[in-house]
Amino acid sequence: MKKNIPHIITSINLFCGCCALACIFYNQFFQAFIFLFVGAWADYFDGLAARMLDVKSELGKELDSLADMVSFGVVPGAIIYMLLVRGLDKNFEEFPQYLILAALPAFLVTVFAALRLAKFNLDTRQTENFIGLNTPSCTIFTVGLMLIYHYDSYGLGSFVINPFFLYPIILLLSYLLIAELPMFSFKFKHFQWSGNEFRFVFILISVLLLILLKEAAFALIILLYILFALVQRLFVV
User: Fold this and answer.
1) How do the domains of the chain map onto residue ranges?
2) Could you read off the pLDDT of 149-165 as tens digits, one per residue?
3) Is the pTM here over 0.85, yes or no?
4) Beta strands in the chain (DSSP E)
């Protein structure tokens, strides 16, 4: 029975990703955020449960990749698509009655997320840290844009749906997903300061941003994460 527990948790991630997609397409952005929040925690705890129960399964590995492809591959593409739809059609209110071709480049993020996940499964260098932007971080960034639009945080709602903002974001995210850029993970081997400096400082700043900026903080936190990776790459041996 215990060997199925990680599979069940992974399935929760997949289910929540599918539910989030339905919410995104029907303008229920807060509900989408809730499903993605639960799915992200399930994605974290499936691996934790597998390690605690000492369960290793090829089925679990494949199921985890499939769940991640939906929650952290299809979902960010769908979010950007719907934001672009709003930016391209000012009269848009609900689910579009026709396909808006100019918004389809959003799903390039989904394509590169798939490449990222496939490379991750084969890359033995990424056992402790990441190379390139991980797919959950990509999703968190797009969720942040979605919430900024939904709540019109700091009057930035119209800015984040502007195609001249979103098209470069699509290119940037697509590149970062497969870039040879070392990025730290949040797998702690120990909780001492030495060796975890970047993690602790990043977590502290992220918590402060969430307290101060609330929903507007998510996208900024991922930008900060990318900046930390660049600083670490340039100045830390």
Assistant:
1) 2-184
2) 999 999 999 999 999 99
3) yes
4) 130-131, 182-183
